[in-house]
Structures
1.
Amino acid sequence: MKQTNKQTKQKHNESQKRYYQKNKDKYKEFRKNFDFKKYYQEHKERIKEQSKNYKKSEFVKFKNKARNKARQIKIPKEQLCQICNKKLAVDRHHEDYNKPLKILFVCRSCNKLLDNLE
Ligand SMILES: [Zn+2]
């Protein structure tokens, strides 16, 4: 089966190449005339939005991964918030999502504060 896939792919590549060869001049002409700047200006919002969404989703995935890891660390009983030292810690806060196991035990209000600082 693998062989067939490879062959199909090769065939596909070849036909693409042939297509490109045949239309090479057209492509060149198109690229020469194509105004990327103008295209960007016209679609700026959409392009920005798309890259923003992409970055956001990657970051969210990254964050969730760290959070899932941190969830395995139990908050010690009677642990005071490591920020205000007043209330009991009920949340975990990451200082750096690159270090998923390095967390602070914080109370809810401090966690909110920290999240707003991000
Ligand atoms: Zn606190």
Note: The first strand starts at residue 91 and ends at 94.
2.
Amino acid sequence: MQFRTSYKGLASAISFLAISSCGSQVSAPQASGPLSLTGFPQGTVWPCEGYYHALKAEQRECLRIPSTGSELHPAIDVLIELRDFSPSQTVKVKEAIYEFGLHWEAMRAESSSPNDSSFARCLDANVNNRMWPTVSSFPEEHRNKRAAIFWAVLNIQYIFEYHARNKIPLVIAGTSREGIMGEAYSGSDGENTANGDLRLAYSPLDDARYTSLMFAGTLMHEWFHRKGYDHPDTGYEDTEYLASLTVAAGSCVRSRNVPGIMLTGPALLDE
Ligand SMILES: [Zn+2]
């Protein structure tokens, strides 16, 4: 069953790769309709309004994910529950989600093909190992670096779509574990039920040297773990670790897609 669901996504991914080299899709302009009595256009859709929840404003954030340009992947909202954070930690986590959203939105705005985005070029320039999940549903015979980057982006999209389709909040929780930026359970790739739940660590959240942009990279990193991607069990001093897709993706977020210029600030902790 799992394979059949995945296969649908695979088939469209593979066919997209075959035809995507000259796309010119841009997002359609929003028609500005008549204003309602509240001053907002009629038909205004509020962030994450489709979710049923009892979360207070300080316990939630709404991540808006633009359409990929394909009707298969419309614009969606992901309601994120922030669990067990102090007020100041909450601010940093919300900023990290915002920074992540900017990065993702820029990728979609640049091109209808994620392969032609700055993020993809950053991955292409920096990745040389673990380009696929350890166990992947993507067929061996179609694997190459371009397909790997396309599949990687699609897999993160699948996480967001799982939450949006099922109206299940994605949970970002806090952890007191020392020596890490964040952590997440390893999941599997394809269009499945792997959620995007992860934890961020209190110590670096409380340390001003670790910025919200650094944590935006941690979000990307942990979400790749949720889709089955891995890296060597070493650390940032190991070039192979740096060049694994999961780690490089986080670095691309943190450096706004130019990792070479980001070598300031404290050493990143394990992720
Ligand atoms: Zn990791």
Note: The chain has eight helices and five strands.
